[in-house]
Amino acid sequence: KVGWYNAVLQPAFHLPYPDDTLAFVVLSTPSMFDKALKPFVNKERLKIIRDPVDQCVSHHLSFVKEKFPDQKVDIIYDYEILPNRKPKFLAQTAAHVAGAAYYYQRKDVKLDPWGKKKIYGVCIHPKYGGWFAIRALLLFPDIQVPLLEQSAPIDCVSTEEKRIELLEQFNFHWQDWSYRDIIEVKERYSEEQKAYFATPPAERFQLLGLPGGAQ
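Structure tokens predicted for Cyanocobalamin reductase / alkylcobalamin dealkylase:
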């Protein structure tokens, strides 16, 4: 429910919907690369003008929208920002309140070892660890669900030591992918997918064999 999300954030980040409004957080799993992105690129290669993953996600979610012709469906994508440069929604907070993935933050560590350093939080999924992404929020403004019960996300990094290790790896060694394996995972990115996401966005078009792309 939108109210769960708004309840944990400052008013500047609130979503402008009634508290009981139904919302879904959309995640992409490791198999998205082979099952969705590659077929999309092969089929739509001449129409891809911005980030291929973003376009692929919006392509598939437009089909979801079509499945509900009698409903108003609002979609907010993870990359969308407001005129003040703030994100339109805080993806990790949304995933946490929806019970999809646990958002580990500095406040989850009792004996904080970082002093004045800025420490960013990170979501971990009980099945995919850090090998997933939060892509969008689907909102159904006309559907109110006052009786929907909130499910807590699974706390899969439960020890103090592991949480410190996770936040250390995410903040200071994120490029080596190690934080994603903080727990045992069922599936991770393929080497091809890792190479794609490790490539600077401007060079990904070349990697996919696409013409030019947006600058």
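The longest helix spans residues 52-66.
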